[in-house]
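LAB NOTEBOOK - FOLDING QUEUE
OPERATOR: T.R.
BATCH SIZE: 2
PURPOSE: Compare the predicted structure-token outputs for two unrelated chains run back to back under identical settings.
PRIORITY: normal
REVIEWER: second-year student, initials M.K.

ITEM 1
FIELD SEQUENCE / FIELD STRUCTURE:
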Amino acid sequence: MLDESTVWAEDGAEAPRPVERAPSPDRTEPPASTSSPRAASSSEAGPSQASPAPAQPSPRRAEPVRLRDLTDVDPILIIDAQKTSEGASSPYIAYVIRSQHGDARRRYSEFEALRVVLGKLYPVLIIPPIPPHHSLGDYAAKQSKAKEDAQVIARRRRMLAMFLNRLNRHPILSRERVFLRFLDPGTPWAEIIHAPPVTHLPKNPLRAPAQNPTDTSLGHLYNVLPLPSTGQTLQDPDQRFLESEAFTAKFSAQLSGSTEKVNKRLMRRWTELGADHADFGALLNGFGLTENQPDLAHAIERTGQAIDATYVSTNAMVQEWERTFTEPLAEYGQFSAIIKQLLKYRHQKHLQYETIRDGASVKLERADAAVLETKRVQLEELERTELEAQRLHSALDRSARPGQASEDPSASTSSEPADDVSSTAPPGARKSGAASFGLLGAIQHSIHNMIDVDPEATRRSNISKTRESIGQLDEGQRLAAGDLRYASSTIQADLDRFQRQKVADFREMFLAFGRIHREWCRKNIEAWEEAKREIAKIDADPSGGTHSAA
């Protein structure tokens, strides 16, 4: 069994520091080290033209950093949920968010869009979940009223407020401008979604820097990076992240597969028990009204009231149970799926790095995913051919140079009769010759377009293109190494932060679970003590002596 302290947190060790993001006027960036992925990789790999096979950049060396949740922040509240149709053709529920920026109104779909945008802006951070969509069962049971169900709205209010507060306490996400504008009551969501940095986001996160996906300055290099295929496996996996993936899968299976199911079954049975107590209490209260013996009638009525109190306390316990235990449990089930996606992104970045590094042995489906070693072999072959062509050209020049002077006079004299012939030729003949030359010239031009008539120029062009492609792949390899280093360090740092958050949350969850059961017991003891005192007043033998009640 894996110990989570060795998977999501490293005792006595610190995660590598995220390297500096490219500055953007539309984003508030976290503090970071002064080295960029490109600079860090260049210092390890050296210039691309230094040798045919430069040293491979290492993706794992980085400086230590810690991410810790902020504590001195004001809480964000969702104070109301209002039904409105403002700015829409059909009514919807708007949640009123109260923060230091004022009271903003946002609908559920805007919360959902915010989370998607943050996930694209920060593919290496754990973005908190939001409550899920209505299930098909909800729509089937409540038809068109599913979105207006009071319990669903109350649950969404609590979980959306938790989502905002988790963002507000995050050391990086709390300073993201998109999030701050979301809290601003004067900024409509349509304005946020159609402005930078959202409009600069790439379609594929693997085609952008992990450190700042909105940076388009290196787009020409990221576009040549190969995309890992589905069936690829890592040749040199990081054992730390293999253990993280295994632990996350076990954690997810434990929560979603067993714990949540049993917890929901318990809540359902407690709810049914409360309903049965309500029915039984009503029956005893009616039965007490039909009894002629006053003492017995009062005792039956008091017993019915104690059963009613059990129903009330059970109902209150189930509601608190859902708020303090069931909802956080479901949230952590969503967290496990989010961490899986995070580790998958890091896995794909690792595959991308290995693909461009060792691509000669990997068969890619994409025809344009040329590999670095293959390009180097092509360049060497083209350069060897170019050298041979230059030697041959030099030899031909040396052999032709001695007879060039003697041939020139004869060529000049022999050209004169030709000019005379052409000048004395009849006009019709000259016209016919020009026409035939135009036709032949067109045919010759078409043939030249289809046939490589200048192999020397083509060869030199291929050499230039191959060198440029190798330079791009060398640079892309350094970028991939920097991305992998940054993704590994930042993901590990955020996993460590999440581990501390998880321990604190589960501690509070189980303390709350014990408190609600203790409170249920206390309320029921009080109700049944009163019922006992009333039962003790019953005259067990109305015609003679009395017997004390047990």
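ITEM 2
FIELD SEQUENCE / FIELD STRUCTURE:
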Amino acid sequence: MPDRAVHTPGPGAVRHGPRRAGETGAHHRRLPRASPGLMAVVLLLAGCASAPEQPDLQSIYREVARASEPGEHPLITVPGLLGSRLVEPESGAVVWGGGARTGLSADPEDPADMRRIALPVVPRKAPFADISDDVVARGVLERAEAEVLGVPFVVDVYGGVLDLLAAGGFRSTPEPSPDAPVYGPGGAPNFAAYRRVASDAANDFRFAYDWRRDISSLARAFHRFVQQRKRRVAAIRSLYDGRSVRPEEVRFDLLAHSMGGLVARYYLMHGTAPLGEEGALPPLTWAGAEHFRRAVFVAPPNAGSILAVDNLVNGKRFAPLQPKFPAALLATHPSVWQLFPRERHRRLAEEGGEPLDPLDPAVWERFGWGLLDAEGADVRAALMPELPDDAARRARARAHQARLMRRARRFQRAMDRWGTPPAHLETFLVVGGGFRTPAAAEVTPETGALAIAAEEEGDGVVLRASALLDERQGGEGAGRLRTPLRFDTTLFLPDEHVEITRNPVFGDNLLFWLLEQPRDAAMLAEPDRPPPAAARGRGDGAFTPAGAPDR
């Protein structure tokens, strides 16, 4: 349960606590009637008040950014679904991210492009880590450029949040420096490595990944990324500290948006431990947390989203004038199944009937959804051309889809366990709001048609209840928030799912957390007394001083 909640006023701000019937928001006690003269003065003063300006982040954080040493505030950012550019290196074909001949993506109606967009429908029980293809991630999407009907257009994806970070002095370079240490054996300088590091002191490391894949299987790639960047930051700090800094001394801050929050949280909780397909779940060791100091999660779908179900039933058009992705094509992506709402939260039901389990293979076969879509024969033919007919393709699709659902259920069980992060890791949650957000869907039994049937408070994509993993969903109890998650600070902002990452108020909070909020007791000081020697150094939070209070 969040320990501290920060609420910001603005359009769509939510008043907490019930309001009695007939209550208008005024205090119940009758107040004396104001005179007309006093009312005129009040209205005149109100008219003179100006609307607040957005925070000028460059001005606020200029000095602290200048005072920061290279490698002092290393940050790893993890984008959400669709947030990394995907390409096929051999052909040079763009699968996602702009520049493709059809606009933002490969053509989901072309058989060759279908095979690039999809992940393989495997005939055997290959490990989920091996269910991949030749497509690779090539950078986090800042802005996607495309052309439709001869008209160029630009879609801002993560350019906004990267601009916010730049105001705090965060910068990135495309490729890491070589791993050669700045100081060799015996402390002798390695001048070649010294020069390379001196020209490349980045502190914002962006983890691009194939967002189609099984989320837990991404943990190994993320671990390799973390280890490589630790060596890079150690080299940078060695250069400026005048001593050999070991990679194990380095800890990062973490910023993760949307599904990227699930990628990061799995790693924090389980390290590189595989999820497995049967037996006991991986132990909750928090092995990945040892590499981080602070973790900021922005609009994570911790309890899933009914929109994931809708996409695998009705397909998805990701932008106006762009081709529609068939449901059967999207159903090959394990990550989308792992974004489903929980059965216990009762987000899917027949019209006027009992709730349905979103991850029950029998439900999907009954209604002909996902890979079993009655209109998906052309997709199945493109993805399984080696099979003789649609009956054989449906049989393989049925078994593969059932396996994807079992995997998603196991992933949810691993992620929903109660547990407190280690004391050295501070966690922050940012929740969007002010938008009626799809919350539940109903199915017409006769046709299998699925439609959104209810909306609740959220950011237009992720429900407030999902970000909080609120176990009051589905009528399971009332009263105070019940959640297995623990956050040191929770910030509620009235903004949309992606727009929140460009919000200057969010940027102000983010840069304060990363650059200025005291990290431990040694950083605190009385106004008339200088801070302790430990706080005058880097203050990277890589250790907890003796006597520091536990969280």
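REVIEWER COMMENT (ITEM 2): Residues 1-31, 531-551 have pLDDT under 50 and may be disordered.
FOLLOW-UP: none requested
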